[in-house]
């Protein structure tokens, strides 16, 4: 490894000095770790799932459970609508349970794979994501709904390539920064290839169209570049260009422009029954919820007033039925989740596991960023975008990709703990 590469890694580690000072002491504290959580050092076997972050698992399980209950509550009245007349009252519930079951199974498999293997596979996973983004645009393969072609039917569920693209960009950007650590101060060699990759993904997503997913993917990539130590001036330049591109897309698109105007004044009679219809009824739902809500199952807005109540606007149903207290609990849970994943990422970087650390922090940006956008849309803080609430909204491929991404973060934590006990990752 070159001297420049070593200095780049050392600079990155220096940004997490507090953890570096604790790294040495962590190795001497084995006596404080319960014996049942020890992992064999000399056996050469993969890390056993004994020493892992149980609180992280419980928070994720809690969000999944609450999401399951609220999806059922939000969708139980849908069969009364002629559009869903052929569905039973438990149609969305059973499919959501099936999605969670598949997601848990996929997560159990993913957590068994060492992070080093994921690092080697990251370029191929990114290529696979690009291929699926192309396939979804092909007639008779991609499924069109509400004017957007975002899904590939797979029988028991519809696969959304943009969800795979989120986890792929987190892996690819983390691996890219490790490979380019020695040239991260050079714009054309360090940043330009990554910018081209994001641009290609962006063009494919905008062709669907799915601007919300593009915003999340751009945030993941930008966040990893920043945390990876890209020069501040270069990062600022990229940010300005990216913001300018979003402004240009909104300016040149009449329907996106109308959406912005509707967001700014949702109660205007020109927008209330049009572009601001979802937002206005979402705000009514929150207003009805007050502090403690109307009670589970007592939402009025879900009775065909609020479109997409079980997907994009699930938080509005939570606000109406569980009130401010319920919404606050969801916000705190996502805040804690993001903070904990960032901590796992910092630990990995302190242990010289840069790919693992940057990947984990990229997932934290994904979960927190998408949750923030969804909550902002529901509360009228941000313009309406078609983004679901991670781990909670109805959607098969989204739940699967969320749990697989978090399972790999859990694997990072398991290997961190094994290293701090003197073992091997």
UniProtKB/TrEMBL annotation:
Transmembrane segments: 56-78, 90-115, 121-141, 187-207, 213-230, 237-255, 313-338, 350-373, 393-414
Highest taxon of source: Bacteria
GO cellular-component term (any): cell division site
Keywords per UniProt: Cell cycle, Cell division, Cell inner membrane, Cell membrane, Cell shape, Cell wall biogenesis/degradation, Glycosyltransferase, Membrane, Peptidoglycan synthesis, Transferase, Transmembrane, Transmembrane helix
Membrane topology: Multi-pass membrane protein
Top EC class of this enzyme: transferase
Known pathway: Cell wall biogenesis; peptidoglycan biosynthesis
Catalytic activity annotation: [GlcNAc-(1->4)-Mur2Ac(oyl-L-Ala-gamma-D-Glu-L-Lys-D-Ala-D-Ala)](n)-di-trans,octa-cis-undecaprenyl diphosphate + beta-D-GlcNAc-(1->4)-Mur2Ac(oyl-L-Ala-gamma-D-Glu-L-Lys-D-Ala-D-Ala)-di-trans,octa-cis-undecaprenyl diphosphate = [GlcNAc-(1->4)-Mur2Ac(oyl-L-Ala-gamma-D-Glu-L-Lys-D-Ala-D-Ala)](n+1)-di-trans,octa-cis-undecaprenyl diphosphate + di-trans,octa-cis-undecaprenyl diphosphate + H(+)
GO biological process: cell wall organization; FtsZ-dependent cytokinesis; peptidoglycan biosynthetic process; regulation of cell shape
EC assignment: 2.4.99.28
A Gene Ontology molecular function term of the record: peptidoglycan glycosyltransferase activity
Subcellular location: Cell inner membrane; Cell membrane
Family designation: Belongs to the SEDS family. FtsW subfamily.
PANTHER family: CELL CYCLE PROTEIN, PEPTIDOGLYCAN GLYCOSYLTRANSFERASE FTSW-RELATED
Function text: Peptidoglycan polymerase that is essential for cell division.
Name recorded for this polypeptide: Probable peptidoglycan glycosyltransferase FtsW
Gene of this entry: ftsW
